[in-house]
Amino acid sequence: MKLFKFLILFLFFSISAQETPIISPTYAFPKIKSSITMPVKIPLSEISSMVNSSVKDLIYEDNSFEDNNNDQFKVKVWKTKPIRIVGGTHDNLLIAVSLKIYAEKGIGTLGVYTYQNTTFETTMFFNTQLTANNNWIISTKTTANGFKWVTKPVLDYGRIKVPITSLVENSLKEQQAKFCTTIDEQMKTQLNFQQLAITAWNLFVEPFNVSEDFKTWLKITPLNVNLTPLKFFGNEIQTNIGLDIYSETFTGLKPQTSPVVGAIGNFNFVPQLQNAFTLNTTSNIPYESATEIAKQTFLNKKYNFKDGNYSVTITGIKVYGEENRLMIEAETSGTINGTSYISGIPVYDEVKHKIVLSDIKFKLKTSNFFQKTLTILFKNKIVKMIAEDYGIPTADLELSSKSSIEEAFNKDYYKGLKISGKVFKLKPHQILLTPNGITAVILTQATLQIKLQGI
């Protein structure tokens, strides 16, 4: 059975600070509830192809002169051109069917007849009203909208020309009524949106490998679907689909596959959705990576304070999390020998494109009483230093991630489905601390369009 395949596959990314993350594959990153909104365009040429494939070229045939109360009339009706469908102005489709008709009529009495035949053409017109039900089924009601003669049916017996318009019209009206039923039956069979939605829903059962280098997986779990009213244009039907989802990011081993669903709940009608989607996903920076950045910035460097009268050298440094604060543990030698604990709340600095510390606090652990008296002087120096110099850069990763997302958004992932999209905003907007690392919640906004072909 041919189906409209109109939902899309969504690939994303993860920010990581090194090539070999040490995150446990079983660690549960926070589930982020979000939504994706997509404009959908259904070409009427594809619906025409569907209807044409279901309607044979020979539409009707009456090979008997004796039936219909011995009407001495035979007729055959062929489709001469593909059935044409255009959008109407009242949530409807206008259908035109071009026909060639062969008719043969006998004239006579007492069983003696003279037969003559003719061939002529006409075009039937239909009006199909479509209603999208929230159980994924499109209801259609097709009514006859008359027909137009291209050449009128006339039998030529030489001097006698017998018009058979009334005979043919009766047959055509009868067949036109039957054809209305055929169109509705085919629409009902082919536009089974529930099965279509199940197929699309199950596209997400497999997590997506969005970064082989960082062994990053994105898992999207659909929750429910929203749909705007169908809009009809001359060459296509448009609507907007909104998915409420959970997105999760994993690093390491591939996460567990979701179960395949055999049924799906009804969708929700909504009057309008924006032609954009917003997606939150999570990305992880291991504490080992944050420690490496701190070492590159501070390790074995000498710092002077109080007009150069005192100095310290950082001989060891480590970064880890403690509740909601990022801890920097620094071993120092020189004027102060001991361990300094600098903590702060990690936030994203949009100007620096770095994860930096705010609300910085300081604590010194040393057994030297004299050194404790210098703490206030050292504290001001190191707090300022950390605030200005320490940060986990994200600019390059943001640019590369934007590029990889747009590459993923402009591919053919499924036969008959064309996806095109562009990211216009991407930034970390929330920083969380986990037992294993720093988790950045990424806000991404983009436009995404899908096109159906060859359904």
Automatic annotation (TrEMBL):
Pfam name, any one: DUF4403
Signal peptide: 1-17
Keyword annotations from UniProtKB, A to Z: Signal
InterPro entries assigned to the protein according to its UniProt record, in alphabetical order: DUF4403
Protein name per its UniProtKB record: DUF4403 family protein
Protein species of origin: Halpernia frigidisoli
